[in-house]
């Protein structure tokens, strides 16, 4: 591992040091806290370089006893600092695919070198000490970095570990999109992973307005380093997201690591997974769609809010996509997924481009599939499948309708936002020209209240879109994937039937040969029959297997869906609740002003 | 055919302070019928004045009758020094009627419940427009009745008392055109007259203030209208969302069904609150701005009349000087000049009184409406909070 230190995040000491002090940092969110900061002394079982997948039960027990990620934490810090250094030194305007991490030689000077030495049993100073250590002006590094007018940067994905009832890790992509243009204008935009858009104020991370602090507390330590707002970097090249992963699973080589991935890489992963035979029947989450308009706008470098929104939307969608993949037990085991997450340099996934050879091939196979689906009717022995298919179809239709309505709601709210802003200005002017002083003051106050309302509406529109509308869009795509599974089962059946008919033909041929008495060809025919018999059995087994898988998958999917919907709905309603409470405050502040008019 | 009742009207009387103070002459519109385009108001008068034949009586009136009354008052020379209350605007059912039409066309795309809910919303909107128009007419009459001078006007009494149909002759084409032309001349005149040097500081101030304020308030009214319309659109969207969620969970057999049901229920309740927010904002804010926009126009008209009188006076002075030069017709010229001066002085005096009381009235009305609007917003937001909190708790506990 040490040899790849240049490229990888700095290697971790193999042992997990108990760092109990860290646990008090993550008060609010118990499970996250446990994951990151609770230290237990079971270092040996979790080591790098072990890539055997383990039984879920084992993993659970391991989770409970192993330390989570103090080192992961470290490496994150290091990594980010390394990045920061690299950025300082590299040419800001280049559209490079990879920042040179040769700066591992130049880690933050304040960090004691000892902390980075990969000794297996050495005590690494606890994170809190590092942060509070005056010699570790951790914030200053990045702060200095931030002060530079870097026109280019990269989107940062930070994963954090998750609760114990999952497989041990999941991602929470936290993107800090600092729009460089926005900074030129003097406003930094701070985006947190819950997709609320806050203008940069003197707000600490855990005071996120959206109220979703618990999600961020896992990355609280990072926030401390990034001054107020984690405004590290903005994205002019969103096609190069960094994927940072923290894990306690032994199958991964290191505990926390980052990788940079293009959007086409995500699409490529999906293609690879869909093509795999072994996964037939599994519901593979589809990635977000390509968008020519959005990407062109971003590439051209326009800094309008819609392109920022586009990047944010895509980032959040990619995060959810990856989270769904790794929360699926089968997909997690897949080497392609591991490669995607771990490997430094993925070969460019060219077969995802629309106009490539592979693209055309895809279109042709899709067309032929559609035709075959229409012509061959499956003889369904199990009505469960048919009923489910109908249900899925209906649900998809309804979701589409709902999505359209929610879209219209988002638009109307944006309209309300604009109208309120315009009205506020007009009211301010009216207040100015009013000659009664008390009334004039009241009218100006009213204008201010309306201004604040505009902000509220803006946030609400964001929440409408990023929480509600995107949830629906995701599930529309997922239902499409579910239908794909059913189609796979039908195809398996077709294959089986075809094999059977071929076997039948061969048997007839054999009978004919027997009758015509040609012994040499008979032998060949017998061989072919044996071969086809084997195929028939295998296809039948495949078909049964797929049937079972589909059943299991659909049930799992439904459970996940209910959970997902519930959590997102709660999130959405809580955001609305908060905004209404702020509304009350604003109007209550205005009331005495109105009463004071004489 | 819709009618309203007393208690509702109490709440509606928002824009001007309660005018029915003077018990000598109490007017209200207890009833109104709406057939197609025409609205028939029942004007009910209770009076202790002897100039009326009966102490308590009602007459049916139409919108055109109100306009006739207003025009008659404006044209009366004696009232040149008074702010004539602005005429009530024509009842406008255009918007809800359009929406009803569109709803009918889109009926096939919606479920039954959605359609009925949308229809209910539209009917509520229709009713709101109707109530608003009744209120505006009532306020017009009440302002007249509470004014010391205008309440004694003969035309006003005829309006209140005459049982037969007033059969106000609708303006024929020539008169309409003439009216239009007069308006054009008037605005040209206004421009000329605004250049006149003002002798009185008070009026100079008032003029600049009113002109400026008028343009600003007109702007604000338009923007406020747009804002309330957006609010209504959002409330409508909530209906659609709730209905679609309903149909989603009707066929759902997965564990997700409960979540969707609760959400659909919530949206149904939320949209009622949103609708009320929109309509309250409309009533308190937009109506207030609209009414005072028209009132300021009436005040501007008063200033215009006074300026006109000033111009006349100055012209008469010049005529007198010319007559003196020519030593011809001096007594007529002097008489004319004296008359003009008298008229101007009378106008100025009453205008001053009117304008000061107008100021006071305006401030009071703004205060009342702003307070009420703030209180209503708080109330509705608290409702929303309760609903949302309830739903979140339900979901979490499940």
UniProtKB/TrEMBL annotation, chain A:
GO biological process: early endosome to Golgi transport; intracellular protein transport
Topology relative to the membrane: Peripheral membrane protein
Keywords tagged on the record: Acetylation, Cell projection, Endosome, Lipid-binding, Membrane, Phosphoprotein, Protein transport, Transport
GO molecular function, one term: phosphatidylinositol binding
GO (cellular component) term, any one: lamellipodium
Bias-annotated ranges (Polar residues): 38-50
Subcellular location, record wording: Cell projection, Lamellipodium; Early endosome membrane
Compositionally skewed regions (Low complexity) per UniProt: 102-115
One Pfam family matching this protein: Vps5
Keyword Transport assigned: yes
Matches recorded under InterPro entries: AH/BAR_dom_sf (IPR027267), PX_dom (IPR001683), PX_dom_sf (IPR036871), Sorting_nexin_N (IPR005329), Vps5_C (IPR015404)
All residue ranges annotated as the PX domain in the record: 221-348
Region (Disordered): 1-138
Compositional bias per record (Acidic residues), positions renumbered to this chain: 24-35
UniProt similarity note: Belongs to the sorting nexin family.
The protein, known as: Sorting nexin 1
Organism: Poecilia formosa (Amazon molly)
TrEMBL record, chain B:
Positions of the PX domain: 1-166
Domain of life: Eukaryota
GO cellular component: cytosol; endosome
Signal peptide: none
Translocase is among the record's keywords: no
UniProt keyword Transferase, yes or no: no
InterPro entries per record: AH/BAR_dom_sf (IPR027267), PX_dom (IPR001683), PX_dom_sf (IPR036871), SNX5/SNX6/SNX32 (IPR014637), Vps5_C (IPR015404)
A Gene Ontology biological process term: protein transport
Keywords: Protein transport, Transport
GO molecular function: dynactin binding; phosphatidylinositol binding
Pfam family, one: Vps5
Record family assignment: Belongs to the sorting nexin family.
Purpose of the protein: Involved in several stages of intracellular trafficking.
Protein name according to UniProt: Sorting nexin
Species of origin: Poecilia formosa
């Amino acid at each position: 591992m040490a040899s790849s230190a240049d490229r990888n995040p700095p290697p971790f000491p193999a042992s997990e040091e108990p760092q109990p002090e860290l646990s008090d940092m993550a008060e609010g969110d118990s499970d996250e806290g446990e994951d990151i900061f609770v230290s237990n002394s079971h270092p040996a079982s979790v080591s790098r370089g072990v890539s055997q997948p383990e039984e879920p039960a084992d993993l659970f027990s391991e989770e409970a006893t192993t330390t989570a990620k103090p080192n992961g934490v470290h490496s994150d810090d290091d990594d980010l600092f390394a990045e920061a250094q690299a950025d300082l030194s590299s040419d800001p305007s280049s559209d490079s695919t990879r920042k040179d991490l040769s700066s591992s030689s130049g880690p933050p000077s304040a960090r004691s070198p000892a902390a980075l030495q990969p000794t297996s049993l050495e005590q690494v100073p606890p994170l809190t000490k590092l942060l509070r250590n005056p010699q570790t002006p951790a914030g200053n590094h990045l702060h200095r970095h931030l002060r530079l007018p870097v026109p280019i940067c990269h989107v940062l994905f930070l994963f954090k570990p998750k609760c114990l009832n999952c497989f041990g890790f999941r991602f929470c992509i936290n993107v800090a999109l600092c729009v460089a243009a926005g900074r030129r204008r003097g406003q930094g935009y701070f985006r947190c992973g819950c997709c609320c858009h806050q203008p940069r104020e003197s707000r600490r991370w855990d005071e996120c307005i959206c109220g979703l602090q618990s999600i961020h507390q896992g990355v609280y330590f990072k926030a401390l380093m990034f001054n107020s707002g984690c405004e590290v970097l903005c994205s002019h090249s969103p096609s190069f997201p960094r994927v940072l992963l923290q894990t306690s699973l032994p199958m991964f080589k290191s505990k926390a690591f980052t990788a940079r991935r293009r959007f086409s890489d995500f699409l490529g992963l999906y293609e690879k997974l869909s093509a795999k035979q072994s996964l037939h029947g599994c519901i593979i989450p589809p990635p977000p769609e390509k968008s020519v308009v959005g990407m062109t706008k971003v590439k051209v470098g326009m800094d309008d809010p819609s392109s920022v929104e586009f990047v944010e939307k895509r980032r959040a969608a990619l995060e959810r996509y990856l989270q769904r993949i790794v929360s699926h037990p089968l997909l997690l085991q897949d080497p392609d997924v591991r490669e995607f997450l771990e490997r430094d340099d993925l070969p460019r996934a060219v077969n995802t481009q629309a106009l490539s050879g592979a693209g055309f091939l895809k279109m042709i196979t899709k067309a032929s599939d559609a035709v075959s689906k229409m012509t061959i009717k499956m003889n369904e022995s199990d009505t469960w499948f048919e009923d489910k298919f109908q249900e899925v179809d209906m649900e998809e239709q309804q979701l589409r309708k709902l999505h359209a309505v929610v879209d219209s709601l988002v638009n109307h709210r944006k309209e309300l936002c604009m109208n309120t802003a315009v009205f506020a200005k007009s009211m301010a002017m009216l207040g100015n020209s009013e000659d009664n002083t008390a009334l004039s003051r009241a009218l100006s106050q009213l204008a201010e209240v309306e201004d604040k309302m505009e902000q509220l509406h803006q946030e609400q529109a964001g929440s409408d879109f990023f929480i509600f509308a995107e949830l629906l869009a995701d599930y529309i795509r997922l239902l499409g994937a579910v239908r794909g599974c059913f189609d796979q089962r039908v195809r398996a059946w077709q294959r089986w039937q075809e094999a059977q008919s071929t076997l039948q033909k061969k048997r007839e041929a054999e009978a004919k040969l027997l009758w015509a008495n040609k012994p040499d060809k008979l032998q060949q025919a017998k061989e072919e029959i044996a071969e086809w018999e084997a195929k028939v059995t295998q296809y039948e087994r495949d078909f049964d297997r797929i049937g079972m898988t589909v059943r299991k998958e659909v049930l799992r999917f439904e459970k996940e869906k209910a959970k997902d919907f519930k959590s997102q709905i709660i999130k959405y309603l809580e955001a609305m609740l908060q905004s209404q409470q702020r509304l009350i405050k604003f109007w209550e502040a205005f009331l005495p002003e109105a009463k004071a008019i004489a | 055919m819709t009618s309203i009742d007393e208690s509702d009207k109490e709440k509606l009387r928002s824009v001007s302070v309660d005018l029915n103070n003077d018990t000598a002459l109490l007017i209200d519109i207890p009833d109104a019928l709406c057939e197609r385009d025409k609205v028939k108001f029942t004007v009910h008068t209770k009076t202790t004045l002897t100039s009326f034949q009966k102490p308590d009586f009602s007459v049916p009136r139409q919108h055109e009758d109100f306009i006739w009354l207003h025009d008659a008052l404006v044209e009366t020379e004696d009232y040149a020094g008074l702010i004539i209350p602005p005429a009530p605007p024509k009842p406008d059912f255009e918007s809800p009627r359009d929406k009803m039409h569109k709803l009918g066309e889109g009926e096939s795309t919606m479920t039954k419940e959605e359609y009925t809910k949308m229809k209910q919303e539209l009917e509520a909107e229709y009713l709101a427009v109707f109530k608003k128009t009744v209120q505006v007419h009532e306020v017009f009459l009440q302002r007249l009745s509470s004014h010391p001078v205008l309440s004694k006007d003969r035309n006003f009494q005829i309006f209140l008392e005459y049982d037969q149909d007033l059969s106000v002759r609708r303006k024929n084409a020539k008169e309409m055109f003439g009216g239009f032309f007069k308006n054009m001349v008037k605005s040209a005149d206004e421009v000329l007259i605004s250049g006149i040097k003002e002798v009185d500081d008070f009026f100079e101030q008032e003029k600049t203030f009113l002109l400026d304020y008028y343009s600003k308030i007109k702007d604000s009214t338009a923007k406020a209208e747009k804002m309330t319309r957006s609010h209504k659109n959002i409330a409508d969207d909530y209906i659609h969302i709730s209905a679609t969620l309903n149909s989603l969970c009707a066929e759902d057999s997965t564990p997700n069904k409960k979540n969707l049901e609760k959400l659909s229920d919530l949206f149904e309740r939320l949209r009622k609150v949103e609708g009320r927010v929109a309509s309250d904002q409309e009533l308190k804010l937009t109506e207030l701005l609209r009414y005072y926009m028209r009132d300021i126009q009436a005040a501007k008209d008063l200033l215009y009349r006074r300026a006109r009188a000033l111009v006349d006076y100055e012209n008469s002075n010049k005529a007198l000087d010319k007559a003196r030069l020519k030593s011809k017709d001096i007594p007529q010229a002097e008489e004319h000049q004296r008359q003009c001066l008298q008229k101007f002085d009378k106008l100025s005096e009453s205008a001053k009184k009117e304008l000061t009381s107008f100021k006071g009235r305006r401030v009071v009305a703004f205060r009342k409406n702003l307070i009420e609007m703030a209180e209503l917003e708080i109330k509705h937001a608290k409702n929303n909070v309760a609903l949302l909190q309830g739903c979140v708790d339900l979901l979490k506990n499940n």
